[in-house]
Amino acid sequence: MTAYQIMESEDFKKCADFHGHICPGLAIGYKAAKAGMEMLNEQRAEDEEIAAVVETDACCSDAVQVITGCTFGKGNFIYKDHGKIALTVFSRKTGQGVRVAMKPGAMELGCEHRELLQKVMSGSASPEEQKRFETLHFEKSCQILEKPLNDLFTVMPTQEQMPSKARIEPSVLCSICGEPVMPSKMVTQKDQKLCKGCCI
Fold first, then answer.
1. Is 162 domain-assigned?
2. 107 lies in which domain range?
């Protein structure tokens, strides 16, 4: 499929709507999530049938939530702050998991694109530079969508343990702030049960 055909697909449109715009990060997240789900032969999760672990909080993670159906609220979307564009998807039905990790250079930006990105991020880009940046950003997104998976990712079965299902616990009060907290998330300090926000 061409990039434009992919962008016209219902699932990609949902990713772009959820994220707010089309960008290279969204494009690579879409490709990673689709690859992981296809490798597991799974459909989008309605509840906790799928679990997803992402290793960055960047743009790509929004596409993962839309494609897999995994969310923070359901407890089957787990974030690990590793700074990597990598996704691990698990099927609770089969017990299998697959890790999709970006290859070096897969999202490499050209010199002009990088320079304009810095200007846009700092707020110093002129209207012309902003427009040129948007053009390059869109072109890079299209390139990613059209690249073969082997050029973008290393895909392999995971050795990681499947995440547990979401826990539901009656709250207890933090000894300092008095706010209700999940007991499993509390910390004991000086014989007091504290929320992590009140720990010293």
1. no
2. 3-157
